[in-house]
Amino acid sequence: MYQVVRARLCALVCGAGTALRRRAVRQGPRRDAGMVTSEYAMGIVAAVAFAVVLYKVVTSGAVSAELQGIVKGALDARM
Q1: Could you tell me the pTM of the whole model?
Q2: Which residue, of 24, 28, 69, 71, has the fewest CB within 10 Å?
Q3: What burial class does residue 7 get, using C-beta atoms within 10 Å of its C-beta: 0-12 exposed, 13-18 middle, 19+ buried?
């Protein structure tokens, strides 16, 4: 009894694998061409938005004065 059940189960599993391989060959490779383009577009939009925010922060009065103070202090340092 055990051997019969095992043989049928093996045939079922092996048959399912063969059927999946046949189906994959018939359908050809999967194509996700639109996904990549939209992901790149969203990444570029996010990068530009981050760059704009960073530019606004760095060019603001308080941050600009602090950066100038740091650079001036570094240039005036004794060696």
Answers
A1: 0.43
A2: 28
A3: exposed
